[in-house]
Each structure stands twice: as C-alpha cells, then as structure tokens.
Amino acid sequence: MSRTAIEARFEAYSLWRSRLTEALRGLRSWLAEQGLAQPQGDAHLERMLAALRDDKLYLAFVAEFSRGKSELINAIFFGTHGQRILPSSAGRTTMCPTEILYEPDLPPSLRLLPIASREEGGTVADFKGFPEEWVTIPLDPKDPNAMAEALRHIAETETVEPARARALGLSVTSDPTQPGATVDAQDGRVEIPKWRYALINFPHPLLKDGLVILDTPGLNALGAEPELTLNTLPNAHAVLFVLAADTGVTQSEISVWRDHIAGSRKGRLVVLNKVDGLWDELKNEVDIAHEIARQVRETSRYLEVPEERIYPVSAQKALAAKVRGDGALEKRSGIGFLEKALAEELLPSKGGLVAATLAAEFNEIETSVERLIAQRLHGLREHWGELSGLNGKNMDVIEHMMDKVRADKTEFDKSLQRFHATRTIFSQQSSDLYTRISLRRLDSVIAETKKSMETSLTTAGLKAAMQAFFAYANEHMDHLTHDAQQIKALMDGVYQKFQDEHGLPNIKPTTFSVMRYQRELKRLQGKHEQFMKGLSLLMTEQKAVVRGFFESAVSKVRAIYVSANRDADDWLKDMMAPMESQVREHQAQLRRRLESIKRIHQASDTLEARMAELKQVLEEIGEQHKAAHAAFRGIRSALKETP
Questions:
Q1: Is residue 90 scored above 60 in pLDDT?
Q2: What is the Cα–Cα distance from 433 to 568, expressed in whole angstroms?
Q3: 401 in a domain, yes or no?
Q4: In-domain check, residue 534
C-alpha cells in the first residue's frame, strides 16, 4: 500500500530532525575538543537538542456526536490495520476526550481516568503525573481485533442522578437537541461518561515521530473540560472541525467554531463528512458533484470560512477503500485531498516554528564562539606586536614592557573588584525579579481566590474574585517588565565600561520580553469574561463554576508563571555569561603575555622562538576559525531545509 502524503511528509520531517540532532551533537564534541566550549553555549545546545527530542505535533478533531470523527481518524491513520481501531458506530461512541500518542517508556495500553476525578479539582494535566489514578488496560498492536475490543471501553457510560452529574461539572438538560446529559423522562436519571479522559499509547510510525491526536467527544465535552477550550485547542498545531453532510451546520457548531477554533492560528480546517449519503444512485455524477458543492457553499457561508478550506469526504468509504485496497473508492472518498492539506499545512507550520526557535538559540551559540575566537586572535596579535617591538632592544626596554603588562593586569584586577560589586547589585535585582513571578506567592493568591469564590453568595462575588486574580497576574507581569529593564540598563553599563577600559569585544545584552505572557493572560481573561456574561448562578452550579475556573484559567496562569520563571532564569544566565567568559579569557591572555616577556627577560627563551610559537598558534586558530564557519554553515543550511 502506498504511503499517504502525511506519512511521506512526516518521514521527511523525522529525517530532518535526526540529521540536525547529529550535527548538533557533532558540534558540541568539536567545540569541547577545540577548547571553545562555554557554559552558555552548551546550555543553548542542550535546549536545541531537547526541543528536537521532545518535539510534539498536536492534531485535534472537534465535532458534535455522530459526525464521524473516530471513523475519520481510523481512515487517515489506521487504514493499514485491516479494520477499525477506534470504536465507530451509529450514535455516540467516543464518550470522553481521547489522546492518542506514543510514549516509548510505557507498554502499549489504554489508560482511563475515572469521571469521579473531577471532584478532586485537579486538571487532566495534573492527573497525568499520577499513574495510580488511571485504570490501565494492556493493548496488543499485533492483534487488531483484541485492540479494537479493548478500546470499546472509551464508549462506556453510567447513569446517575442529575444532581450528581452537575456536581461533576457536567451540564444537564431536558432538551435532547441541546448539548448536555439528557434527563430520562421515565426515571429522571441521566447518562454520563464513565471516564473523564483516555490515553492510548500506540506504536504507530507517525506517533513515534511525535504526532499526538486528540479526539474530542461532542461539543458538551468542551464545556465540561474548560482545559480543552482554553488551553488544548488554542495550542493545537492543527484542528479539524468535523461536520456531517446529512445534518448540515447547527447553531451550536457555529458557536463553537467562532468561539474556540476560527481565527486563532493557521491549520484550522473544516471537514464535511458523510458525503456518501449524497451518492444517490438515481443521480448522475455531475448532479452529485453539484449537490456536494452546494453543501460546501452553505458551510462556507455559515462558518464564514473560504470554500477551499472545506473538505468534503466520506471517512467510512475511505477506510473501507484502504482496507480493501480499492484505489477508485479511496479517490472518490475525497480523503486524499484532506491528507494532502494536512501534510502541506500541519508539518510546515510546525517545522517553521521549530526551526525559528532553533535558529534563535543557534545565533547565540555562533555569536559566543565567534566572539571567543576573535578575542583570542586580538590578544595574540597584540602580543605579537609587543614582541616584534622588542627585537634588538636592550634589557631595560624589556623590563619596561614587563612592567607595563603588570600594570595592565593590576588595573584589570581592580576592574574585576568593581565587577564583583556589580554582581552583588545584579543578584539583588535578579532576586526582585524572581519575587514578581514567585510561584509560592502565586499559590497563596490562588488559595485566597478559591476561598473567596467558594464562600461567595452571588455571581458578582464570583466575578470579582476572578477579576482580582487576573489583576494580580497582570500587575506582576507589568512589574516584571520594569525589573528586567533595570537589570539590562545595569549590565549595559558594565559591558560598556569593560569595553572602553580594556578593549573587550562589543556586546549588547538582550532584552527580556514578557509580551507573550501578557497576551496569553489577556486571552484567558477575555474567555472567562465571555463565559461569565449573563451567568445566572444557581447554588448547585457554584462548585462546578469554581472548579471550571481553576481547571482552566488558574492552572494555565500558573503554567505561564512556570514558563516565565524558566525563561527569566535562562535570560539572567545569558546576561552574565558572556561577560564572565570575556573576563576569564582576558585574564588568561594577560598571564600568557606576562609569562612570555618574563621568559625572554630571563633568557630562558629566545625572542625568535617565542615569535615562531605565536605564529604557529595564530595559524592554528585561523584554521579553527575556518572549521567553525564550515560547521555553522552546515547547521544553518539544515535549519533552512525544514520539510
């Protein structure tokens, strides 16, 4: 069976990552061998290797129940297994959000998080760190029948009282046309998912290469798990919004598209599934094509999305065609056009982001190595000039030269004392910066916010507590900007003084930007303000509202603070490291100059021999410089060749 466009593109992307990883490892070894390894450069290399090693590409499928999401996933990714892998049948099948990925350290398995975990207040991301909270079912990839049977657990449900469903944060309705658990007219109970979340660990080639598939079970799940709408979907590299040609676009689907998917970034595609329902045997192919085109136009009008972003397919026929090897049916199913679109949008978009991140890190490595080589060449040439001036001179002149080098060293040592004093100020300002984004202080505010919300008796009280929490987060991000500017101004002055007094290479410390954190905070706040508009709070819903806020906004804000702490730590190290490297190199050069002139003065070495030695070292560093350029060009070329 021929590879799909997605498989071909993923294979190329995986090879690109492998080649780049090997090139970076080779560069790290070479720098160490040549004495060019520096702490900050090694940190940048490690971050690049980690980015390539941990690279994940998230593809989310979003739809109402019975739109054929699971069948579409089967058709695109599991057609080579000879049958359906994910459960797919009429009515509701996947009842909980399902993440399909590959974790090499774990055996193939289905892990299920009980719905009761919602009572404990933790997010799904939190529970991923506690494997004992999950029910684990082994999977045998070599036995598709057994695997398909095991995965039927995803569709399991249980019946509970409406109050119990609400306590779990699930919406309850008596209107079967609305999203939510529907109250049975006979016994008054409701059917809810048995599981909150499912993780399928499966050794599929694309999953091994970093693809992660998220299957969301109906629009009700988006409301039940705010983590999906506020965090997972906005950060997915591609989202397939699946509609059904036999039902058309519903009002709830229009709302979900506008509120949670459209306009957030590239890689948002609409799939008009089940078009085989329009394959009327009493119509000719032209009429059928016109009917499908009409459905596409209507979908385009309702969702306000270009027609070329809408892909009419039959997932069921596509899967059947792949299982049977029926090329004509596969072509008619339209799956090839969708797969091509995913291959052309999903990976290039992700690859471009990865390459841009790696290029920024690599700039720092290249700059630091170039700076170190330039500093060494400058010191050696300066010393060559000193020794050339001694040719034919008497001992008094040599002694005078030696005194001058000693004076330079003494003056530099005084500058070092001032530098160490500046480091004390730097440490204090760094401490102030860390205080702004202290996780301990944030956790204290989180606890106070939770207490305020749980004891609030009104909707206004809930809103006020939420607003106060966002106000705290935004205010401290603003202060973080001010503190970072103060630190940069301090280090700008230190670098400039060393450059003026001792001729060290010109370095401009980078600026620490918090704009991305501020934008994410603003987005989260906007989403929650939209959610709270017009909310008429019933006391039975209060616990669910509080839990939803903490599972989505609060957990995400804390994640933002964790990222800010990590990025600030990297920035502060990068701020100080170049100066420390320059200082060490300049000290070493002064020692070498003094020792060289001392040996000539004591007649333990001849001027000619010392100059010959310097010439050889200069030639070696020149060759080293050429080799570094070649290595850098190779990696830069690889970065530009993103598939």
A1: no
A2: 8
A3: yes
A4: yes
